[in-house]
Amino acid sequence: MTASDQYATVRYLVDDVPAALDFYTTHLGFEVLTDRAPAFADVTRGPLRLLLSGPASSGARATPEDSADPGRNRIHLVFADLDAEIARLGEAGLSFVGDPVSGPGGRQILLRDPAGNLVELFQPA
């Protein structure tokens, strides 16, 4: 198994790589794998590898303009205590998209990164 086989990789297009890098490492527990700001950064959290691609990166340049807006897709991060995470992130000045939602699988709330990409915080039932 190679190092890249250890991760599921997602690319998020961001307009400010240092701001995105700070958001994911400071607030959501990601670790820096590669920092080539301002072009891109590569962070990991468990088996998730998140490529933060700025406007100068090849990933962003290869994306058609009409496809570059943040969408409804999102990464999904699991937490044991969603209320504690909401409180912690709220105290850090972050705001959420809506209120927590409960369903048969658990509870979730959405957060936006500095570029507008969605992040789902989830607590299993």
Structural summary, described in words:
- The chain is an alpha/beta fold and 125 residues long.
- It has a single domain, classed as 2,3-Dihydroxybiphenyl 1,2-Dioxygenase, domain 1, CATH 3.10.180.10.
- 21% of the residues lie in helices and 41% in strands.
- It has 3 helices and 8 strands; from the N terminus they run E-H-E-E-E-H-E-H-E-E-E.
- The protein has helices spanning 17-28, 58-61, 82-91, and strands at residues 8-13, 31-36, 40-45, 48-53, 74-78, 96-103, 106-112, 118-124.
- The strands form 2 sheets. A 4-stranded mixed sheet has the order 1-4-3-2. A 4-stranded mixed sheet has the order 5-8-7-6, with helices on one face.
- A hairpin with a 5-residue loop joins strand 7 (106-112) and strand 8 (118-124).
- The chain starts with 7 loop residues before the first strand and ends with a strand.
- The mean pLDDT is 87.
